[in-house]
Specification:
mainly beta; 48% strand; 10 strands; 114 residues; OB fold (Dihydrolipoamide Acetyltransferase, E2P); single chain; 6-stranded mixed sheet
Length: 114
């Protein structure tokens, strides 16, 4: 059975970060979820907008908190989709290797002149 399917992100159009939350592993205790190496997992909500279509929201799991701000245009690397089915419910979950700002950071101007 195929566990994950690579996603062609060029077909998703413009991507914006609309939310970042640490993934919860235990909803009763609110204990965060970690990967096998002990790194925290985060859920990044992305708005994907392709020309001529309505925006769609997808939640993407990533290891570690990405260095992006809500509302920022982003690049996603290594996006995969994993279909799942549990007790008659089904869906698709998404995971990525990295989510980075689509706009490069500008160098800080200033400092000592002289």
């Amino acid at each position: 059975m195929l566990r994950s399917i690579p996603v062609d992100i060029t077909r998703l159009g413009h991507l914006r970060c609309v939310g970042i939350e640490q993934k919860i592993g235990d909803y009763e205790t609110k204990e965060p979820k970690y990967d096998r190496e002990g790194n925290p997992l985060y859920v990044v909500s992305l708005a994907a907008k392709t020309p001529g279509r309505r925006a769609e929201l997808i939640d993407v799991v990533i290891t570690g908190r990405p260095d992006v701000e809500e509302g920022a245009a982003v690049h996603v690397s290594g996006l995969v989709a994993a279909p799942w089915e549990i007790e008659g419910r089904s869906g698709v979950s998404f995971r990525a290797e990295a989510i980075t700002s689509a706009v490069p950071a500008r160098p800080v101007k200033g400092g000592d002149a002289g």
